[in-house]
Amino acid sequence: LRYLTAGETHGPQLTAIIEGLPSNLQLDFEELNFQLHRRQKGYGRGRRMQIEKDTAQIVGGVRHGRTTGAPVALVVANNDWKHWTSVMNIEPIEGGDEAKRRVHRPRPGHADLNGGLKYDLKDLRNVLERSSARETAARVAVGAMARQLLAAFGIKVAGQVIRIGEIEAPPNRLPAEELARLTEASSVRVVDKETEARMEAYIDQIKADGDSIGGIVECVVEGVPVGLGSHVQWDRKLDSRIAGAVVSINAFKGCEVGIGFEAGILRGSQVHDPILYSEERGYHRASNNAGGFEGGMTTGEPIVVRGVMKPIPTLYKPLASVDIDTREPFTAQVERSDSCAVPAASVVMEHVVAWEVAKAFLEKFGGDSMEEIRRNYDSYLEQVRSY
Ligand code: EPS
C-alpha cells in the first residue's frame, strides 16, 4: 500500500494516487467528504478556509461504489485557484515580479529558504506553494480510505487536542466512539467545555498579538489486533513508522507513543503494563502506558500516540530575515495565515495514523480482495484465540 500526492496550494487541485487497496472495498463517499470537512474546521483558522469547500472527486480505481483493485486516483479542487490562474499558470506569463507574485523574502520557520537554496529557485513561491499545509487535504482524503478499510474490520480511529500553547486539556481515556462524538462538538476538538472556552480566549489573544500558536494532539486507534508491525527488522516496527508519518505532517516536530517522554522519568515498575489473561478477553494488559506497542508490534491494546505541532510560522508580527535579492535584512511582510491550526492538525494526524495502521494490516493479512483479507484475518484471530 502506497500513495503519492501532487499539487500546489494555489494551483488548480491536489491529486493523489493510491496503489495497493484491495478490490471490493465498499466506499462511503459521504463519510470521505465528512473527513475533509472536519479538517477545515477549528477555532483559529484564517480566511482561506472560507474560500474552500473540500470534496474528493475519485477519478480512477472505483466502480459502482467499490474499489476494483486498480490504483485509486482522487482529486481535491482548490476553489482559490480562480484568483491565482495567472500567477500559477503552467505557461510562461508576461510581466515582472508583481505579476508573478514572486517571493524573495524567506519566512523563518517555513521551507522557503532551504527549498530555494536546494532547488536553486529565485522565486520562493515555487517552494511555498508545495510546502503549504494545503497538501494535508490530500492526505486526509487518502487516509479516509484507509480508515474505511480499517472500519470494515472493526478498527476505530479518533483524535483530540491535548494542549494549545499554555492551555492543557484534562486527560481522559474515553472509548474512541465517545471521544469522536464529544470532540466533534468542540471548536478546538477537546472534550472539556471549560477548557474549550479558555482555549478560544487564548487563541483570540494570540491573534490580537499578531502571533500564532501550536499545541499537542492525540490519536487513538481501537480494535487493533495483536501483532501488526514486527520486532525483527527496524523498518518493520509500526510505532516507528507511525512516528515518521506524524512528524511528516506540516509543522509537526515530535511524536510520543503511550506515555512517551514520561517513560524517561518513571521507574520500570511504574512504566510497564502487567500481562493478564481471562477466558473472555484472552491475553490483555492491566494498563496501557506502552500506547499499544511492544517490540514495534501492536499489543492488542489501543494505539495511543501524540504529536506536537509548532506555531504556524507565517506571522503578522514580523521576524528578522534576509532578502535573497539584496542579502539585506528586512522584516517579513504580512501574509494571510491561520493563527492556530491545531484542531485541524488533530484530524490530519488521525488520517496519517490510520494510513500506517492500514498499511501494516494489509502487510499482515495480505490478499487482493476484501474477501481474501477477511479469511486471512479470521484465521489469524482463531490462532490468537487458541494460543
Ligand atoms: C498555509 C497557508 C494558508 C492556510 C493553508 C496552509 O493558506 P493561504 O496561503 O492560501 O492563505 O490556509 O491551509 C490550507 C489551505 C488548508 O487547506 O489547510 C501554509 O502556508 O501552510
From TrEMBL:
Signal peptide coordinates: none
List required co-factors.
FMNH2
Q: Which reaction does it catalyse?
A: 5-O-(1-carboxyvinyl)-3-phosphoshikimate = chorismate + phosphate
Which GO terms of the molecular function aspect are on file?
A: chorismate synthase activity; FMN binding
The GO annotation for biological process reads: amino acid biosynthetic process; aromatic amino acid family biosynthetic process; chorismate biosynthetic process
What are the GO cellular component annotations? cytosol
Checking InterPro entries in the record gives: Chorismate_synth, Chorismate_synth_AroC_sf, Chorismate_synthase_CS
Keywords from the named record:
Amino-acid biosynthesis, Aromatic amino acid biosynthesis, FAD, Flavoprotein, FMN, Lyase, NADP
What pathway does this protein act in?
Answer: Metabolic intermediate biosynthesis; chorismate biosynthesis; chorismate from D-erythrose 4-phosphate and phosphoenolpyruvate: step 7/7
Q: Where does FMN bind?
A: R130, S131, S132, N250, A251, G295, K310, P311, I312, P313, T314, R336
Recorded hits in PANTHER family, A to Z, give: CHORISMATE SYNTHASE (PTHR21085:SF0)
Q: Oligomeric state and partners? A: Homotetramer.
Similarity field: Belongs to the chorismate synthase family.
Q: What is this protein called?
A: Chorismate synthase
**Which organism encodes this protein?**
Paenibacillus albicereus
